[in-house]
Amino acid sequence: MRLTKRGEYALRTLIRLGIAERLKEGVISVSSLAEQEHLPFKFLEAILFELRTAGYVKSTRGKYGGTQLAKPMKSIKMGEVVRLIDGKLAPIGCASETEYEKCSCPDETHCGLRMLMIDVRNAIANILDRYTLENVVEVTLRKQVQCAATGKKAAKKKTTTKRHADPSDGFLAALLDPVA
Hints:
The chain has 180 residues and is mainly alpha-helical.
């Protein structure tokens, strides 16, 4: 499974709207949201339309209008949003529960690749379906407070060394960190 830009932007948008709700910022204009998250305005409008149609966000028109969450954060599962925007979670079609596609393997029942990819799908689904937008917003805000307290700033400097995803920077690590 690879999250598309559309899926990434949808999740980032919901997280930003969740933060705004938690901080009691009210509605956020689409232009402000696009600017804050560094998202293409027209692409964001299309994503918001899809999220609005699915009932995740609502819009207010007018001079002081904008977008805000339409559902409680605790009722928005991250897996539901990914499936809405990007479809199946399985890396290959024959391992999908929701969008099964017959593969070219001569013995699908005993195919080791299919069995492995079913486990991959299950691992992804278990994480995405376990956590809600409320969980992600809580961890995000906690990490921001922690970084502010220690004086850490977001890494914006150019570096010639190859960046990698440090496991200690993961969501589960931050969620389980008792000092955060």
